[in-house]
Amino acid sequence: MADMLVKNMSLKVGHTVTVTGVPKAGAECFALNVSAGPDHALHINVRFNAHGDERVVVCNTYQAGVWGAEVREGGFPFNYDELFKFSVSLTPEEFLIVLSDGSEIHFPNRLGASKYTDFSFNGGVRVHSFEIN
What gap in Å lies between CA 46 and CA 91, rounded to an integer? Predict the structure, then answer.
């Protein structure tokens, strides 16, 4: 179950969603899912030494009950109790995630849709703003 769910807000090709928030102190991780029904076209998992990983941002897709291959790129500009901001832009080929330190993650648009309408946040994060331009 999602801690925060946003439905029927369209992220279309050429649009960008911008998220600001604060990771909760002591949280192992938090995640943003960009979804089409039960499938996650983009799963961004910010891990604070969770799952045996060092501090890392992991992106993936969940389709037909199966996780795809993980992508681990970009920096890690997240600190407990400090405001973060990142953006996700959709193109026909990929999601471009720009983190607050300027590092980029290029994640393929594996589901191939030109519009996604559902977003969910899970884990240790307080979302301050969520905006689509």
Answer: 22
- Domain boundaries, position 102: 4-132
pLDDT, tens digit, for every residue of 88-108? 999 999 999 999 999 999 999
CB 55 within 8 A of CB 33: no
The rounded distance, in Å, linking the Cα atoms of 45 and 56 is 8
Number of domains in the chain: 1
Give the residue from 83, 84, 73 showing the smallest Cα distance to 106. Answer: 73
Q: What is the mean pLDDT of residues 72-99?
A: 95
What CATH number does the domain containing 69 carry? 2.60.120.200
- CA gap 51, 67 in Å, rounded: 16
Taking the CB of residue 124, how many other CB atoms lie within 10 A of it? Answer: 19
Does 114 or 53 have the greater pLDDT score? Answer: 114
Alpha-carbon gap, residue 113 to 133, rounded angstroms: 18
Give the Cβ contact number of residue 122 at 10 Å.
17
Taking only the tens place, the pLDDT of each residue in 25-44 is 999 999 999 998 889 999 99
